[in-house]
Fold this sequence. Notes:
The chain is built from six helices and ten strands; from the N terminus they run E-E-H-E-H-E-H-E-H-E-H-E-H-E-E-E. The chain is of the alpha/beta class. The protein has a six-stranded mixed beta sheet with strand order 1-6-5-2-3-4, with helices on both faces. A four-stranded antiparallel beta sheet has the order 8-7-10-9, with no helix packed on it. Helix 2 links the parallel strand 3 (about 35-40) and strand 4. The radius of gyration is 16 Å and the shape is globular. About 40% of the residues are buried. The mean pLDDT is about 90.
Amino acid sequence: MIINNSKGDRVFVSWSGGKDSYLSLLLAKEEGFEIACLLSFIGGEGRSRSHGIKTEILKKQAELLGIPLETEEVTWESYEGGFEEAVSRLKEERGVTGGVFGDINLNEHLDWIEKMCGRCGIKFNLPLWQMEEKKVSELLIDRGGKAMVVAIRRDLVDESWLGKLIDQDFIEYCLDIGISPCGEGGEAHTLVIDGPLFSEPLHCKPGKIERKENRALLEIGSPD
């Protein structure tokens, strides 16, 4: 892991709604950081830029976790500027001194985080950094977290996994076909629907499957 904040510092958690950001939230709390808010970057269509999850579902997650959600609308071209604007706002309004990120082993992601956090004058933490990929998914299961597969690469993962929870069978499936068991390469994305910190499970309605090129996205309806 990479942790350069001090215990008690106020941080935001970069929030996709998926298992990696959720696990990073759990580990950051255990390290003694004060979680000021979750931060999600949203596209013009009202979905998270990272996982394609509707903003209303991210808001419900945050409500059940008891943590405020902050959002920033960006395009891929305006992402860096949007990050700077969001962090500036959070420093002023919420007193944040650092950010928590769910990246695991992609060096280009680490380079970007180092660059942007340095530019914004904040610290950064990556609780999952260089954790064995199998261990990431196993950690979710061991902690009692439940994450539904909501997006896949159709050329790598069978569509039958959409709507199912990450479990040992999924981990073994990924290992058998030679892909990351935690989806670090974008093989699959998840939506966390229950686990520690949740006041109750997130009740949502899986819908139709949207297919575009080699991607398949499970439409998730509004929470009850």
